[in-house]
Design brief:
alpha/beta, 250 residues, globular
């Protein structure tokens, strides 16, 4: 009986571990990696994963950069389930799982900074670099999405739809070398410092331009004190408890 209790407890902890944001993010990136490895010709496409680059206000982290003669594809992954609602012009998108509602930053806007960083860093025209958002997990789009927001390995088809060569082989090799030589080491220290930079920037800009999706009031950065997201930062409405609007910080 005692052994059974230990086994059940260990299994519960393991399930919680699998649901943690870090593991979900890793799983999403792994699926994108496998898709690129198996379905993109290595002679035509070079995939560089987990790229952290220095910027004026700290660092920016890019899940995947795929470089080819057909352009540069900047891939942002989201491991989410449930119904997804959103449009390109909305700052905040919505995730619904039964009666639970979660709001998160528009991933297209999130990826926009990555694109602009690479444009400036590489000195490349904006029409040669493309944003791609990939949702991994049991999710369903409940509103029409633009062509560059896709499920699973559907992103491969989108990348392959670009058939006009806009970069020479020499330019491709030069871009790959520059990214690899300038990226920060893919280590736990780099990741930790990147998260610290994010928290610092969020604190400095707390509530300045984030509005409650329910009532329009300014948002305040808070920390979850209970539940599955304990310790995680999020935007909470400044009118709480009258208004319980929240926005996830991704």
């Amino acid at each position: 009986m005692f052994n059974m209790i230990i086994l059940v407890g260990a299994f519960t902890i393991f399930l919680g571990f699998l649901k943690s944001p870090r593991i979900k993010g890793f799983a999403g990136e792994l699926i994108v990696n496998i898709g690129a490895m198996l379905l993109l010709n290595k002679k035509q496409y070079c995939t560089i994963k987990d790229v952290t680059l220095p910027v004026d206000d700290g660092t920016t982290q890019i899940d995947h950069i795929i470089v080819s003669e057909f352009g540069i594809f900047v891939v942002e992954t989201k491991n989410m389930r449930g119904w997804i609602f959103g449009s390109p012009d909305q700052a905040i998108w919505t995730q619904k799982i039964f009666k639970h509602t979660n709001r998160f930053q528009n991933p297209l806007r999130q990826n926009y900074k990555h694109l602009k960083t690479l444009e400036s860093f590489l000195g490349i025209d904006e029409d040669k670099i493309h944003s791609v958002v990939v949702f991994i997990g049991d999710s369903t789009f409940k509103t029409p999405m633009p062509n560059n927001v896709l499920h699973g390995i559907g992103y491969i088809r989108y990348i392959k739809s670009y058939r006009r060569k806009v970069l020479t082989k020499d330019e491709v090799e030069s871009i790959i070398r520059k990214i690899r030589s300038s990226r920060l080491p893919a280590t736990p220290v780099t990741k930790s410092e990147h998260i610290m930079n994010l928290k610092k920037n969020l604190k400095e800009n707390s509530g300045s331009d984030v509005k409650c999706p329910r009532c329009g009031a300014p948002m305040i950065m808070r920390t979850a004190k209970k539940g599955g997201n304990i310790g995680k930062k999020f935007w909470g409405c400044s009118r709480y408890p009258e208004c319980k609007g929240i926005v996830s910080i991704e």
